[in-house]
Write a structure and sequence with these properties.
Elements lengths: L7 E5 L2 H12 L6 E3 L4 E3 L4 E3 L2 H8 L3 E3 L7 H8 L6 E5 L7 H4 L6 E5 L7 E2 L2 H7 L4 E8 L9 E8 L6 H19 L3 H6 L11 E2 L15 H10 L6 E5 L2 E11 L10 E5 L2 E5 L4 E8 L6 E2 H7 L14
Parallel strand pairs: 1-2, 1-6, 2-5, 6-7, 8-11
Antiparallel strand pairs: 3-4, 7-9, 9-10, 12-13, 13-16, 14-15, 15-16, 16-17
GO molecular function, one term: methionyl-tRNA formyltransferase activity
Organism: Tepidiphilus thermophilus
InterPro entries: Fmt, Formyl_trans_C, Formyl_trans_C_sf, Formyl_transf_N, Formyl_transf_N_sf, Formyl_transferase-like_C_sf, GART_AS, Met-tRNA-FMT_C
Length: 319
């Protein structure tokens, strides 16, 4: 391992972070402890369930700390009583690290962020990049400071966003790229930190957390924008619309040429290929849908159990 970096602690919670932790362990790094969010209720039984990062750590026999917060001195006491690591790698941890923790490791804290900073700082960079129609995105390794994803950039790697990219498929690619980049940088981390670049002041955007209301499709938007949202919200939380008062999830769509004069949300055609809906600008062919309690289905199969007629209208919650 690197002459100057040996003990690499880790803070993260979801699968995106677990992939990086697995890569660290596979590369032979000593991980003295892991920080992750407390176990949360999940599944039909709402049983307390460990995070993906905790499961990886437990399988490897690594000590796990799960503070609910790190705001007060009492919250941080158990963590800071441990021997300081050489570096703390942070990936989608979910808690804000206070200054005392940021400056605790010998070489500070290194964040794996799923965008090409300074574009898409914040909570949902993968979703927002697809939703905005970005041609490319990537992963940035950043030395953390007290701002929101504002620290110096240590290394980055770019990747194109394909025309059929979903948040799920892009998540998996970026997680693998981030893990690979981390393992490449760590052996010579002090050199990389010395060459880190400040983020430019121009081009800053913020990837706000998805709100419950955003799940409901606004049919007055252009078809291209709606189609991107379907992909951006796949697999979570899923885009929704009401039809005959039934909340349906809409997973896939195809923008069609031409336009109509019907009110946005109106079904203008129904066939084996899908359900054509008028939008604020253009038409959208819905090709994969899901009814409550059902599975995601191709349109032809969905229509056999949920017939749809021309002239019906999709609406939003309360619409």
């Amino acid at each position: 391992m690197g002459e100057n970096v040996r003990r690499v602690a880790f803070a993260g919670t979801p699968e995106f972070a677990a992939i990086a932790l697995r890569a660290l362990l596979a590369a032979g790094w000593e991980v003295p402890f892991v920080l992750t969010q407390p176990d949360r209720p999940a599944g039909r039984g709402m049983k307390l369930t460990p995070s993906p990062v905790k499961r990886v750590a437990q399988e490897a026999g690594i000590a796990v700390l799960q503070p609910a917060r790190l705001k007060s001195e009492e919250d941080r006491r158990e963590l800071l009583a441990l021997p300081a690591p050489d570096v703390l790698v942070v990936a989608a941890y979910g808690l804000i690290l206070p200054s005392e923790v940021l400056h605790w490791p010998r070489w500070g804290c290194l964040n794996i962020h799923a965008s090409l900073l300074p574009r898409w700082r914040g909570a949902a960079p993968i979703v927002r990049a697809i939703e905005a129609g970005d041609a490319e995105t990537g992963v940035t390794l950043m030395q953390m400071d007290e701002g929101l994803d504002t620290g110096p950039m240590v290394a980055s790697v770019a990747t194109p966003i394909t025309a059929d990219e979903t948040a799920g498929s892009l998540h998996d690619r970026l997680a693998a790229l981030g893990a690979e980049l981390l393992v490449q940088v760590l052996p010579e981390l002090p050199r990389h930190l010395a060459q880190a670049r400040a983020q430019p002041a121009e081009g800053v955007t913020y990837a706000a957390k998805i709100t419950p209301q955003e799940r409901w499709i606004d049919w007055s938007q252009p078809a291209e924008r709606i189609e991107r949202r379907l992909r951006a919200f796949d697999p979570h939380p899923g885009a929704q619309a009401l039809l005959r008062g039934v909340p349906l999830k809409l997973w896939r769509g195809q923008v069609l040429e031409g336009n109509g004069t019907e009110p946005p949300g109106t079904v203008t055609a129904v066939g084996t290929e899908g359900i054509t809906v008028q939008t604020g600008q253009g038409r959208l062919l819905l090709t994969e849908l899901q009814r409550p309690g059902g599975k995601r289905l191709p349109a032809a199969e969905f229509l056999r159990g949920f017939p749809v007629s021309i002239g019906e209208r999709f609406t939003v919650e309360g619409g």
